[in-house]
Write a structure and sequence with these properties.
Elements lengths: L1 H14 L2 E2 L12 E5 L3 E2 L11 H15 L3 E4 L1 H15 L19 E23 L2 E20 L5 E16 L13 H4 L2 H21 L7 H5 L5 E5 L2 E4 L12 E5 L4 E3 L6 E4 L4 E10 L4 E8 L7 E4 L2
Parallel strand pairs: 2-4, 2-5, 3-5
Antiparallel strand pairs: 1-7, 5-6, 6-7, 8-9, 9-14, 10-13, 10-15, 11-12, 13-14
């Protein structure tokens, strides 16, 4: 009997499991700063008992946007944590020396909001597909469908750049599909192997494609233009100046900065709160010649005596 079952299994392995789950190409390009808010769940899925569908799908989109190579993704939960800590500092419940500094958050140029409107998986079949020597093995099938409504905002102007829909489907049939009807969490391997997991992935890939196409023609702003970021000189080696920002801040070859010595810190005499720094003495000007992920290399355009810790400001 065992031999007969093995023969049937071999037959199915040669036939293959039919899967209609398309793979999307990963897009490459200049990084834009983007954030993804938690999605609203408007779908009806009483069979699902796993993670929150809206949160799970928004997390998948944030990961996919980052993996596409086109975006620097700002984690909204991390921002909320930092803001909460800053509020504690302002209230005097955390030391100003150890707490999060106000203004340290790097803003996103774009924000994605969404709603999951469809999240469904239907199973079919289960009868005898093949028999051999009186032993039958059932062939089952499953079809999943996921729909997401997306809105992409320009955080500077508040303008809605796009309002579109991303859809993902997946149909599978074969031997012992092992389809889950709930209770499986997003992000784990068992979810990703199910039809609903694959349909979710296809919807997310379609969403990445839509967002990429919508933002392709929108100018990429540097972090300095978005949030007033001021960099620092990380090191000076021979005639090269290394700064603490790279592609993660959308810095590009040819960008120029003026460099100042760090000035004196201003402290409010009544509250003890830092009011910022007095601008120090002008050192000179530098231009980016090489960009890496977290740092850039610059040539000196004019000036001398550049040193680690000097402050950078963008030339606009």
């Amino acid at each position: 009997m065992v031999k007969k079952i093995l023969i049937l299994l071999l037959v199915f392995s040669f036939l293959g499991i039919v899967g209609l789950c398309a793979d999307e190409e990963i897009y490459q390009g200049t990084k834009k700063r983007i954030a993804v808010a938690d999605f609203e769940d408007k779908s009806a899925h009483p069979w699902w008992t796993g993670d929150n569908v809206g949160t799970g799908m928004s997390d998948m989109l944030a990961t996919a946007l980052m993996e596409s190579g086109r975006f620097t993704v700002l984690e909204r939960q991390r921002v909320e944590d930092i803001i909460g800590e800053q509020d504690l500092v302002s209230a005097g419940r955390i030391s100003k020396k150890t707490g999060a500094k106000t203004g340290a958050i790097i803003g996103a140029q774009f924000m994605v909001y969404g709603a999951v409107t469809e999240f469904e998986q239907q199973e079919r079949g289960g009868g005898v597909g093949l028999s051999y020597g009186g032993i039958g093995i059932g062939v089952a099938g499953s079809k999943a469908h996921v729909g997401i409504d997306l809105r992409v905002y320009d955080t500077t102007t508040g303008q809605i750049l796009a309002s579109k829909r991303a859809v993902g489907t997946c149909s599978e049939s074969g031997l012992a599909l092992g389809v889950s009807r709930g209770g499986v969490n997003f992000g784990v391997g068992s979810f990703q192997k199910t039809p609903i997991g694959k349909a979710s992935r296809n919807a997310i890939e379609e969403a990445v494609k839509i967002i990429s196409e919508v933002l392709e023609s929108v100018p990429t702003l540097s972090a300095t233009e978005i949030s007033g970021w001021e960099g620092k000189v990380a090191n000076v080696i021979e005639d090269k100046v290394y700064i603490n920002g790279g592609s993660n801040y959308n810095i590009q070859v040819g960008d120029e900065f003026v460099v100042y010595k760090s000035g004196e810190k201003l402290i409010d005499p009544e509250t003890g709160e830092s009011l910022g720094m007095v601008q120090g003495k002008l050192v000179g000007q530098i231009m980016v010649t090489s960009v890496f992920e977290k740092y850039s290399v610059c040539n000196v355009v004019q000036g001398k005596n550049f040193a680690k810790g000097d402050t950078l400001k963008t030339i606009k």
